[in-house]
Design brief:
mainly beta
């Protein structure tokens, strides 16, 4: 069983930055999981944002590539999402996700971005609101 707890959301002006954090706990070590983020906004489908495996190989949705950076600190059981050059359309509830995988399982990483509905575990979410 895995528990994920997000934090760091808030309101930010367009063009600004914010950093989300996610704390992981589980029976297996965090290194046994690929981690990622997806977001939900009213009237929009769930959207995968970014994901990475335990070695740090990452993938991003094209809409955030170059602006967002996903990272993890296995020693701290933590996942992060640094969000820069924020746009109004980045507004949404951001969820941390985890899926069992092995180092080098890039297919899992990519799938977490393009198929966010198949996330194995997810947290309660943290709201990000970008004011235009």
């Amino acid at each position: 069983r895995v528990q994920l707890v997000e934090s760091g959301g808030g309101e930010v002006q367009a063009g600004g930055s914010i950093k989300l954090s996610c704390t992981f706990s589980g029976e297996k070590a965090i290194s046994r999981y690929c981690l990622g983020w997806y977001r939900e906004a009213p009237g929009k489908e769930r959207e995968g944002v970014a994901a990475l495996d335990s070695d740090g190989s990452s993938d991003y949705d094209p809409s955030v590539k170059g602006r967002f950076t996903v990272s993890r600190d296995n020693a701290k059981n933590a996942l992060y999402l640094e969000m820069n050059s924020l746009k109004f359309e980045d507004t949404g509830m951001y969820f941390c996700t985890a899926e069992s995988c092995n180092p080098g399982d890039y297919d899992v990483v990519h799938d977490m971005v393009v198929n966010p509905n198949v996330a194995q575990y997810w947290g309660q979410g943290t709201q990000v609101t970008v004011a235009s």
